[in-house]
Amino acid sequence: MRERPHVRSALAGADRDRIIYDLTGIDRQYDVLRRELPGVEVRFAMKACPVDEVLASLADRGAGFDAASPGEIRQALRTGVAPRRIHYGNTIKSDAEIADAYALGVTTFATDSVEDVRAIARHAPGARVFCRLSTSGDGALWGLTAKCGTEDPVPVLEEARRQGLVPAGLSVHVGSQQMTVRAWERALGDLAAVLPRLKDLEFVNLGGGLPAEGYLDRAGAPMTPPTAEMFAAIRAGLRRLREVAGGDLDFLVEPGRYLVADHGSIRAHVVRLTVRRQPWLYLSCGRFNGLYEADQVGYRLEFPTRSGGRTVPAVVAGPTCDSDDNLGTAPTPVPADLASGDPVWIHGAGAYAISYMTRGFNGYDPLPCISVRAEHVRPITPATGARSPSWRPARTRRRGSPRTAPCSSPGPAAHPRRPSCSTPAGGSGATCWRCRTRPGGSPSRTGPSTPSTDRPICTFMTSLSTTASAAVGGPSACCGTSQTRHDLRSTSRSR
Are 234 and 184 in contact (CB under 8 A)? Predict the structure, then answer.
């Protein structure tokens, strides 16, 4: 799995460590999911990637959100998505957290116990609840079985009805990075066995568990989950559930790593290649600052400045003095001539990288992150000068006129669902070519223009500090201000 040119360009242009999310790749993965499971509503599991730009992009595509706390609910609402498209998917929540979520407009809650149902009835009267069935977790890298779910949802939902709540649905979770088709077949079979005992349910939530395909196993070989067969089994299971229900039944799915894991790459650097009984390669990024899941999965490493030479099998580890900060135990072939400071690209790191970072363990800061998109260029017929149907003249900058500057217009008017770009403009008449809005908020009459040949095409990126993360709307890491939208001409600056 090779990263797309715009991602590689961003990695090559980075002079410091960071994680880079490919919004174009995430959008395409979302579209694949919708094609494989037509009619199934997508609620993105926010814990997998709580990055504002990723959430906003998915919301624009039509996704709702599976939130696990009032903090995640607030972040989801900042995308502009309606509260009815957010559910509180955590079965573990305090009275205060239930009340906070209800006050924010969320009225659908996961549950798995009578005690939780009674708390929801007190603090979110009239809410809708869905009950999570326990599963074995067999076949998944992370089973997720002991802490959530009930063996029998019927008494829980009957109590919900007595308490004045709406027993709306059932849910399952087959475990994270599920690698078998059989796990889905068993979970769907369990749902089919329970449905006849319940009346008037509205939906079934299939939960998460869909696997990413870019990981390596603990021996260093590519993982090959049977994703196509999983989708076929799920579609067959949904048809059976509709038959058993004997009426209309909606379906939800809560993908997390499936959407983002293969579309996030980390730019790190070599700390040192040493020999202690065997070669050890220490990197600037490890389990405590972006690669927490390295105890179960391997990541593809690329050394862009060292290729084609002799390699040595080395144990790869992070920079901290904690002995758990190893990226697997199997030796990995690495260039023998690596030097301190050499860049290394770590691929397939998009899931749970931001979520699991520590806040400065051993004094190492969390990685900042940016989001990039592929550029879309209008076709122009060469040589003859014939214009394509979508062609229009490009605006060129007159000599002496100010260069393009970041936009200082109000966010909702210029960039819906995006934070405002308020970085000071480069001149009194400078204009953001993306929205054609001049400093002070006055729009240009011409509207958006095609970038001219003497002006590099911009890649729009958001830099989020994980020390003041997207989850709390904190300051940006790129300039220290509270703005996160910048008009960055990265394609030329990296050269």
Answer: yes
Q: Reduced to 3 states, what is the DSSP secondary structure of residue 357?
A: coil
Find the angle CA(104)-CA(106)-CA(108) to the nearest 5 degrees.
165
Question: What percent of the chain is helix, strand and coil (3-state, nearest 5)?
Answer: 30, 20, 50
End-to-end Cα spacing for the chain: 25
Among 142, 216, 128, 126, which Cα is nearest to 176's?
142
How far, in whole angstroms, is CA 305 from its chain's centroid? 29
Cβ neighbors of 108 (< 8 A, separation 6 or more) are 84, 86, 87, 88, 127, 128, 129, 130, 168
Cβ(367)–Cβ(357) under 8 Å? yes
Closest CA to 211 of 258, 263, 260: 258
Give the span between the Cα atoms of 181 and 189, in whole angstroms. Answer: 13
The residue written with tokens 């009340």 in the block is 99
pLDDT per residue as tens digits for the range 69-107? 999 999 999 999 999 999 999 999 999 999 999 999 999
Name which of 470, 490, 8, 14 is nearest 285 in CA terms. Answer: 14
Structure tokens belonging to residue 53 = 């730009």
H or E segment at 270? strand 264-276
Please state, in angstroms and rounded to a whole number, the distance separating the CA atoms of residues 196 and 244.
Answer: 7
Overall residue count recorded for the chain in this entry: 495
Hunting for tokens 């830099």 — which residue is that? 463
pLDDT in tens, 183-199: 999 999 999 999 999 98
Spatial distance between the Cα atoms of 364 and 317, rounded to a whole number of angstroms: 15
Q: Which residues, at least 6 apart from 155, have a Cβ–Cβ distance to it below 8 Å?
A: 114
Is the pLDDT confidence value at 395 over 60? no
Q: Which helix (H) or strand (E) holds 132?
A: strand 128-132
Report how far residue 219's alpha carbon sits from residue 117's, in angstroms, rounded to the nearest whole number: 45
pLDDT band at 401 (very low <50, low <70, confident <90, very high): very low
C-alpha 452/C-alpha 186 separation (Å) is 57
Report yes or no: 263 and 256 within 8 Å, Cβ to Cβ.
no
The DSSP H or E segment spanning 269 is strand 264-276
Reading the block at residue 485, the tokens are: 């939208």
User: What's the sign of the alpha-carbon dihedral 129, 130, 131, 134?
Assistant: negative
Task: Determine how β-strand 343-347 pairs with β-strand 369-372.
Answer: unpaired
**Separation between Cα atoms, residue 277 and residue 251, nearest integer Å:** 55
CA angle 226, 85, 21 (to 5 degrees): 55
Confidence of residue 4 (pLDDT cuts 50, 70, 90): confident
